[in-house]
Design a protein that fits this description.
Layout: H1 6-29, H2 35-49, H3 57-61, E1 65-66, H4 68-77, H5 82-89, E2 90-93, E3 98-101, E4 109-110, E5 115-116, H6 124-128, H7 141-147, H8 152-169
Antiparallel strand pairs: 1-3, 2-3, 4-5
Helix pairs in contact: 1-7, 1-8, 2-8, 4-5
Length: 172
Amino acid sequence: MQAVNLRSFKQRVRHRKRSLRSFLTRIKNNPPRHLDTLAEKIDKEVWKEIDCRSCANCCKTMSPTYNKKDIKRISSHLGMTGGAFKEKWLTFDKSDGEWINKQVPCQFLDPDTNMCGIYEVRPDDCSGFPHFTKKKMVDYIHVHRQNLELCPATLRMVEKMQQKMSIDKHPR
């Protein structure tokens, strides 16, 4: 497993974004039968290569959504009421109808270590990120398109998928 170099990641994204987004659009419009099986296989491969703790770009650039269970679990962990937790740390996004962090980067991220201060009780959205196998792959293509520029693991997943699907099309 290698540490993530965010500068290198951003350069790779800049050079490949258009082709990778186009590839994801083609998958969405014409999903291959084995897409979910391939996504599960690639998910395992990616996590052998990428160390999220060396990156934490999701925590630095995005906010998770907090469901009711998250708020109850985290506020209890912090010795607060759910209302006090929301008042101190969250804001309600009326356009999406979801609770999100008041600030980015995440208030629970230690910038020196890239470690989450509430890792054991972190929101479900965080524990599932970047959502490779959350639902059927085709139903989450829009999320992967968005995360290409934010998550080195997503970039690597899409690159691997593109490579494997190209090999399947053109066997030697």
